[in-house]
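Incident log, structure service

09:12 report received: a user says their structure output differs between two submissions of the same chain.
09:20 pulled the input from the user's history:
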Amino acid sequence: MKEYKTVTQIAGPLVFVEGVSDIAYGEIVEITLPSGERKKGQVLDTQRGIAIIQVFGTTAGINVSETSVKFLGETMQLGVSTEMLGRVFNGLGEPRDKGPSIIPEKRLDINGAPINPYARAEPRDFIQTGISTIDGLNTLVRGQKLPIFSASGLPHNQLAVQIARQAKVAAKAGAKEENFAVVFAAVGITNEEALFFIRDFEKTGALERAVLFLNLADDPSVERIITPRLALTTAEYLAYEKDMHVLVIITDMTNYCEALREIASAREEVPGRRGYPGYMYTDLSTIYERAGRIKGKNGTVTQIGILTMPGDDITHPIADLTGYITEGQIVLGRDLHRKNIYPPVDVLPCLSRLMNLGIGKDRTREDHRGVVDQLYAGYATGRDLRSLAAVVGEEALSATDKLYLKFADVFEERFIKQGHHEDRSIEQTLELGWELLSMFPESELKRLKKEFIEKYGKKYRKN
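09:34 re-ran on a clean worker, output below:
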């Protein structure tokens, strides 16, 4: 351990120490104030004998003449154990639920270890969320990273807890029950939101198989950088050492990126797009790329990152970079929310790039792909015709066009819309799809094999 009394500058949450040597990036430090109070911090950068330290907490009371900084020679670690299931922690991994301290089975570096690309196994098999627009149209696959793009005022928090509550891996009848857990990380949330999350998890019993990390809006911004990494370290331990299938839900990644921008500004870095640091893409990838499957390991880490698009702008740097790194997106639409449709998933811009790896005869059902393609085609046509009808009037449309127009309305009201506690199995979702498609004559079902129409669709068709 090395101790210095060479603090030269304090800027926001950062402390600059000069004359240092053999200091590592990410190293934990202990800062002793003139009053005797101790604070923890982390080395953010080191160059030319100067170390930049981000303080966990406020910098109040730190001065340049009497403050001492001790470098502890280790990176930040999290003590992990299966006892963490059913517990609530703060943004630094300390118990928030007034329960006993965790006795760790081991301590892990919160930055994790990069997964060797050769050791990565292909994501496969789906996770059932109970949400038709996800399970049916944009299937979530074990080992996938699938973000939710939301906006201010949309019910992404309600959707997050519903997914956490309903998610399961053994969806098919007769499938072997497998160990499943949810790690939920909330970044930069209000006290009201924190109470909402805790009460919902406790009331529904979902807390028993979940680990919660809650970073509040009035906590230091540097904690927002740490909270997602604590969640992912916990998930990796449960998945790769305890053979569990773990779903990690992180909300809100926009708050995380705002913290990145704040710290970059305090460091007086040259800003990139819209003031965000130029390395934001690299930083986000260190979070998103920790999802996956590893050859020889039974467990998996699947990730849903939720972000609110500033100004509803899907081209905003946060959404844009997230879209590049991840494997698709679920987009929430304000127009559907105005119609009182929950969840307001705008299915047309949604995409799950790994969907085909998780569906089919041995995983969901043999008709899954065909039903999805036909539903998409019908809804897209109906949406286009709404625009046309607004110009020429509905009376000018053909009978078939009016049928597609009606289908779009029914699709939103019955397929997209479902209750906050309505948990639909994949079979129920596909059967609902067939029921809605029975509105069309068989000649319009061009994306469905005739054998599937005979096997699954006939019972819904009027004689």
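09:41 both user submissions now match this output. Likely a transient worker issue. Closing.
09:42 reviewer note: The radius of gyration is 25 Å. Residues 2-75 form a domain with the Thrombin, subunit H fold (CATH 2.40.10.170).
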